[in-house]
Amino acid sequence: MSLALIAALPFLGALLPGLMIRSGRNAAAGFAAFFNFMALLGIALHTPAVLRGEVILAQFDWLPSLGLNANFRLDGLGLLFAGLILGIGLLINFYARAYLSKSDPAGQFYTYLMLFQGAMLGIVLSDNILLLLVFWEMTSLSSFLLIGYWKHLPEGRQGARMALAVTGAGGLAMIGGMLILGNIAGSYDLSVILTQKAAIQASDWYLPALILILLGAFTKSAQFPFHFWLPHAMAAPTPVSAYLHSATMVKAGLFLMARMWPVLAGTPEWFWIVATTGLVTMIMAAKIALFKNDLKALLAFSTVSHLGLITMLLGFGTKAAAMAAVFHIINHATFKAALFMTAGIVDHEAHTRDITRLGGLRTLMPITFGIASIATLSMAGLPPLNGFLSKEMMLEEASHTLWLTPWAMGALATIGALFSVAYSFRLLGHTFFGPVRDDYPHTPHDPGFGLWGAPALLTVLVVVIGLAPMTAAAWLVDAATSAVTGEPVHAHIKLWHGLEPLALWMSVFAVGGGLVLFGLHRPLLALWDRTPRPDAKRIFDGIIEPFAALSRGLTGALHDGALTRYMAIGVLAIVALGGYAFVSGAHLPGTRAMTRIDIVPASGWILLLCATIGVIVAHRNRFVALVMLGVVGLIVSVGFAYLSAPDLALTQISVEVVTIVLLLLALNFLPKATPRESSTPRRLRDGAIAGVAGLGAGGLIYALMMRDFAFPSIAGFHLANAKTGGGGTNVVNVILVDFRGYDTFGEIIVLGIAALVIFALTEAILRGGPANDRLLNWTPRASQSGDRHPVMMVVATRMIFPIFVMVGVFIFLRGHNLPGGGFVAGLIVAIALVLQYMASGFAWAAARQKLEYHAMIGFGVLIAAATGAGSWLAGRPFMTTNYTYIHLPPLEEFELATAALFDLGVFLTVLGAVLLALSSISRIATRAGEQSNAEPLDLVLGKEEAR
Amino acid sequence: MELLVASAVGMMTAAGVYLILRQRTFPVIVGLAFLSYAVNVFIFASGRLAVDLPPILSKTAPGYADPLTQALVLTAIVISFGMTAVIVMMSLGAYLESGDDRIDMTDTDDTDYPGKDA
Amino acid sequence: MMSHWIIVPVVLPAVVGALIVLIMRHDLVLQRVFALATGLATAAIAGGLLWSASVHPAEAYFLGNWPAPFGIVLVLDRLSAMMVALTVALWLAVQLYAIGSNWDSRGRHFHALMLFQLMGLCGAFLTGDAFNLFVFFEVLLIASYGLMIHDGGRDRLRAGVQYIAYNLVGSTLFLFALASIYAVTGTLNMADLAVKVAILPEGDVALIRVAGVLLMLVFAIKGALVPLHFWLPATYSLAPGPVAALFAVMTKVGAYAIIRTCTLIFPPATPATGTLFADLLLPAALVTLTLGAIGVIGAKTLSRLVAFAVIASMGTLFIAISRFDPQSTAAALYYLVHSTLAGAALFLIADLVSDRRAHDRLTESLPPIARSGLIATLFFGAAVAIAGMPPLSGFLGKLLILDATRGALLPLIWTVVLATSLITIVGFSRAGSVLFWKAHASTGEPAETKDEPLAVAAVILLLAALAAMTVAAGPIMAYLGGTAAQLYDPAGYIAANALQGAN
Fold first, then answer.
1. Contacts of residue B69 in chain C, CB cutoff 8 Å?
2. CA A461 to CA A215: how far, in whole Å?
3. Neighbours of A237 (CB within 10 A)
4. How confident is the model at residue C403 (pLDDT cuts 50, 70, 90)?
5. Would you say C127 and C147 are in contact if contact means Cβ atoms under 8 Å apart?
6. C1 pLDDT above the threshold of 50
7. Which of A38, A211, A561, C168 is deepest in the core (most CB within 10 A)?
8. Contact, C74 vs C9, CB < 8 A?
9. What ipTM goes with this model?
10. Would you call B72 and C152 a contact, using CB atoms and an 8 Å cutoff?
11. What pLDDT does residue B63 have?
């Protein structure tokens, strides 16, 4: 079976429980178990080859450009871990089926469990370290989900987040380390990296890589000082604790160190960092375990301690130590998983895990007791159980490892062993021995086979490996160790080495001392409770919560919705960067001759200055500001006219009118005055910002105007081809409808959208809600009301209306040759209608114009688009124009270009847009109670209404 | 002449910037109008200045002003007109909805935060 | 032979949009049908363009049949084709969601505005003319104004006013920049600009630098780069869910424009500007990423959290862009597509949640929402994606970006990227734990069930796209590698314009 398929099986197993979340426990468990078993079978089929020393490979390209490939390998080490993951996984599956209550969503549980299994299996089968990273982070995620499985428990939620934060952080550090490693080795494939020891250890980047990778390993394997998350992860359902937090996930760190052992180990840095961390972790955790009353907490710290032990062994960097490490990985997995399951059984039966409330279970649950005692004694390292064997090997290695002094390592290792004996006896003694009590939360009995079957099987292994290590385990240890060290290794594991070895006496001392500690437990506990200790969770929260609070403060303060500040910052940034760009580059002042100034522009300039200052000074009185604004617009358009831009002048002036009308109508409903809010310093600040911005803009255009184009402008082409190619003498108009007609197409669509937006907005306002209520009880100010439709104006506007329209048509037609065109024409006709509205009231005007504004817009855009697309028929690109000349009196001869048709689209869109916008405002006005006189003879009636 | 135009652009830009830094929607809108005047003249001037040389082809014309920048300004005028119309109506709507024409919003979130004893 | 297909993604939505306004403005069903059909047709065309761009060199389309640089050209190359395809795909998903959740019926002209928005986006990606880029920026902006305030409401309208005001300043700046560029070079065609800026006389250097910086600042506003990002949180968090989701591509318009101009017109090799933009971009990007991540953990509502996640992703994106070498740019493009889809998915999920909750504050936990399990799963997936955790494309994107980073700044960049990832992860785990886990602890009746299969399907589609991006990362990176190569060898782009000498 291909390794890729094996790696995929658990994920497939996660599928059905995930999809059929309500399929009962049996279905979910059975389905998951099947895929779990198939994967195990697949590994089993490869076992003989692996034991022969072969390395099974399966390689697929995934992301070659990055060097991330779906390459899988199976060697001794992989075999060991895959066996653990899948074998124990199967037992857990079986155990959890009985453990979960009917109320627990089984589908979710098995989905998460299989997701984790797949991720974990992926780690140990990866031949590509980037692929390994993928699976690595996935174990963090799936364990997050599993720890938080009981959503209603705060411990579960917090434990899950803590585990994710710590292991996730480690994983991120590891990403850095792996990338460095890959760059040194020139490949991310393990099979290459493992051959690069010399290059890697010689590189300057070795230490950074080592530290970053170890951060990943230590956080995952709960090494000091990152151990604190593991006890909190015990909020997870016990099957999860047994699987992830004793047998598999927490061993991922160990796996990684073993995997990288050939290239990273053997240096002083490695020895000091890894061995020391392991040693400290082992002793510290063992000591804490002694004083834990929660069965699972005790087991958790014991796990941390044993992980430390294995880490330390890997840190030694010798083959023998590596072998001891591998062997202890196997043994620890067997007895610790069994112990977690028994703890689960006790919890399940007695409804408590608190040792102080237990005791005397020996007689009540004999089977559980049997299982627990064997596993515990193995944990304590007593012969003839497997825990004894690997502990002996550990002590042996420690005893002749030079660390600070020749004896320090041995002594400290013995102390660690001593503590573990002590807490093991405590676990056994205070839970199972002693008198039967009558105050259990629930009277315990031995559970069904479903619960004790799995741990029982593991304890059998504990005994078998203990009695016959060579037959039961040596082959696996050999294969794994050879894979770790990269050279064939042969283990000679014996229960009895005679009386000579120091290790024997060390463990005798450990057992004796452990018994003494156990005897002194009560006073020691009292002492322990009195000594103050740092609480990991409080420290963790002490980091996270202030940081979160800080982030909240910062985020809130920066993004508090104060647009004025946003704008100020923006403008300053723009001016500053623009200025920087200018001073950091070479500039030659321009040499163009300055255009002569005569009286007209000079006086216009002064007028502009006055108007501008006027707006600034009087901007609080909004009507005045508006009038001044109109003046500015007027001067600008006159200026355009003076500087040979008649089209601009015409457009500017007509836009000006419509804009001012719009603003006036809007101002009708807005406050008439702006309160004086900003303090003087604030105004000075704004003034300064405005000043530099003004200087920037003015200076820039001055510098630009005084220089010539660096290259001939493309406008030359437009002048040369407007008549011959575009068929018009008004080059600006030809550019608008021909050379750059596509811009105009976009431009009228902008106008159309603007009208649609305004319409939709009005609908939303009038739909009801606060705005609508405000309008309904609106009180028009007496000062401005009065005669709303002065007769003179009504008459005048109605008489000039046709003239306006004529002018519009005229301007439209001549546009291609003389100033004018669809846009201006549209505006002029719009203004004519606006005048009607202002004079006679909207409803009257609306009742008299049959066209629907929406239709006008849509139609205009369609005409424009159709004109453009028409050229496709001629096989030409969009908007290719064509024209012929037409003479129809009294107008001078003009040519009918397809461009003119396009201009018609512009005309309609503009007209429709402007009118739709204004009609929207007027609808607001109507809602606000402005009576509109809809009758034909409204001149009179209007008056009567007014009375 | 160039000096006048440049200083006019500067003037209108400054006025616009000052006004968009005010705290009510109306002055901000007026400020934006100022900015669009300023930039229109800026674009126009980027084609260099010319007096009495309208870009309307004729046998007699000694030369022409840059027609392209004029076309660009026309497009700019139209677009900014649409934009102004929208923002005017939108600020009107905002005022009617909230009874307040301040342009700054105050963060209405409460002081509590995620993850607290979650 | 010139293919007219290039312009269809612009014209087709415009025409259908106009038709909807003209004849179907009162019939929502017809609008839905036509809008979706148009989207599908455009998607098909976009697919064709993508294929064509991947096998042919850059191709220009001369509007009005005028030669470049005198008329306006559209240019189809691998980058523009890819952006159009991405836009249409996202647009379709959002449309589906808007229909499925009935968002489109809560106000007027939703579909017309969506179509014009699509037109504006496609136009901006396809154009080869600087001023035309401005015009289409305005088209997509004004459509976005309308969509942003769709369905009205006090806060939304006020945020809308801010959004418009800020962007109007941006548009004005755009015009200042364009006018300056024209005043120096006398041209607006991008290819022509590339040619002329490269050989600019000494005396104009300072001016073109100013013009270039102003232009970059305009794009930085769109791309929400600190300190020009302030408009984003309120806008995105107060916009209707589907609209916010569509806006995920609007920030990318800024990113696209910077990539385009900085590789075509102002490449680092150009003496006039040199590394000016790279030098300014990197620090801003680092700060943006940091502020965004801090916002993720500091946000008080779900929608604001997502908004800050988008800011953070823009920071990451701009870090990669600021390197301006083919490998980093390819990585950036992969991350661009990923972050667009992931951000959109998150906004839609946030909308699903807040639609079923009394409020979307992350402060007090409410009873479990309807379909809690399903929505929680979707949220988890999207969060994993945006936080850059495996197995989704975000992780690959970050790996690609980190792997492409070289040089003295490597430690700084890696530290910022990895540390902010952690902050983001913590922020999302806290939020998710309140929304979906703590809910089960709180007493009270769960909200009434509300089935919106189409809406949920839209979200699933987006997540599926992310999964596909992960699985097919190899071929995708092959295409993007080619794209980057094309960008750093502008000769093809310029040649496609067949520039004529000015007369």
1. 179, 182
2. 33
3. 22
4. very high
5. no
6. no
7. C168
8. no
9. 0.95
10. no
11. 87
The two three-digit tokens of residue C350, written as one number: 């946030």
HSE-up of residue A826 (Cα within 13 Å, Cβ side): 25
Distance CA(A168)–CA(A126), nearest Å, equals 19
pLDDT at residue A931 greater than cutoff 70: no
Question: Is the CB of residue B83 less than 8 Å from the CB of residue C146?
Answer: no
**Overall residue count recorded for chain B in this entry:** 118
Angstrom distance (rounded) from CA C6 to CA A9: 46
Nearest to A615 among B1, B30, B55 (CB): B30
Q: Do B115 and C164 touch (CB under 8 A)?
A: no
If phi > 0 it is left, if psi is from -120 to 50 it is alpha, else beta; for residue C71 that is: beta
Closest CB to A771: pick one of B34, B44, B97: B97
Answer yes or no: do A574 and C7 touch at CB < 8 A.
no
CB-CB contact of C366 with C353 (8 Å): no
Residue pairs spanning A and B at CB distance below 8 A? 335
- Cα–Cα distances (Å) from A923 to A461, A652, A662, A843, B98, in that order, read 86, 27, 13, 9, 19
Q: Which chains touch B (3 or more CB pairs under 8 A)?
A: A, C
Report phi then psi at A826, rounded to 5. -55, -45
pLDDT of the residue at B10? 97
Give the Cα separation of B19 and A930 in Å (integer).
32
pLDDT confidence of residue A944: 42
Model pLDDT, residue B116: 34
- The Cα A3–Cα A62 span in angstroms is 16
- CA A188 vs CA A270, C183, C330: distances in Å: 21, 52, 20
Asked if A347 reaches chain C (Cβ–Cβ under 8 Å), the answer is no
Digit-coded pLDDT (tens) for C37-72: 999 999 999 999 999 999 999 999 999 999 989 999
Phi/psi-derived region of residue A821, left when phi > 0, alpha when psi is between -120 and 50, beta in every other case? left
pLDDT at res. B112 = 37
Tell me how long chain C is: 503
Inform me whether the pLDDT recorded for B117 exceeds 60.
Answer: no
∠ CA A555-A161-A221, nearest 5°, is: 125
The 10s digit of each residue's pLDDT in B61-92 is 888 999 999 999 999 999 999 999 999 999 99
Which B-chain residues 32-91 have CB contacts (< 8 A) with chain A? 33-34, 37-38, 40-42, 44-58, 64-71, 73-75, 77-79, 81-86, 88-91
Q: Residue B17: phi, psi to the nearest 5?
A: -60, -45
How many Å apart are CA A194 and CA A71, to the nearest integer?
15
Highest mean pLDDT among A239-248, A908-917, C213-222: C213-222
CB B65, CB B47: distance < 8 Å: yes
In three-state secondary structure terms, A896 is: strand
Distance from CA of C437 to the nearest CA of B (A): 8
Contacting partners of chain A (3+ CB pairs under 8 A): B, C
A126 torsion bin: left (phi>0), alpha (psi -120 to 50), beta (else): beta
Segment A140-161, tens digit of pLDDT: 999 999 999 988 888 999 999 9
pLDDT of residue A884: 66
Q: Are C479 and C54 in contact (CB under 8 A)?
A: yes
Mean pLDDT, rounded, for B35-40: 96
Locus of tokens 């069904």:
A448
A148 interaction partners in chain C (CB closer than 8 Å): 433, 437
* pLDDT at residue C493, as a whole number: 96
Crossing angle of helices C28-55/C110-126, nearest 10°?
10
Identify the three-state secondary structure at position A401: coil
Percent of chain C predicted with pLDDT > 70: 98
- Res C367: pLDDT: 76
